[in-house]
Amino acid sequence: MYGSLQNSMLSTMQNTPAPVIGMSATELWYTDRLTYTITRISKSGKTFWMKHSDACGGDFEIRVYFSNPKGKWISQGGRTVLIGVHDPYTDPTF
Fold it and tell me: CA 52, CA 46: separation in Å to the nearest integer?
């Protein structure tokens, strides 16, 4: 179940580019979208780490891996991550 039509549509995006250090990434929440910057990539290219793009996001990294069955990037919290997309959004109704 998705909180917004936009996030539902974004979560089905295919053919996202390969991650590159410094590239933007967007994590899809229920109705919100948080933006990050890719900081490290594993040698296999199937895992990368990212940090919040804004100053109030903290100084910690989130691990993201590629899920073959789902065909998309998934954060350690189980949320879809879009590579090469910088699209922040905070739902004002919450």
Answer: 20
- For the whole model, what pTM was predicted? 0.82
Strand ranges (E), 45-86:
47-52, 62-67, 72-75, 80-83
CA distance 23 to 35: 11
Q: How many CB atoms lie within 10 A of CB 21?
A: 12
For the chain, give the mean pLDDT: 84
Cα angle: 48, vertex 49, 55; to 5 degrees: 150
Q: Please report, for the chain, the start and end positions of each structural domain, with discontinuous segments joined by +.
A: 5-11+20-83
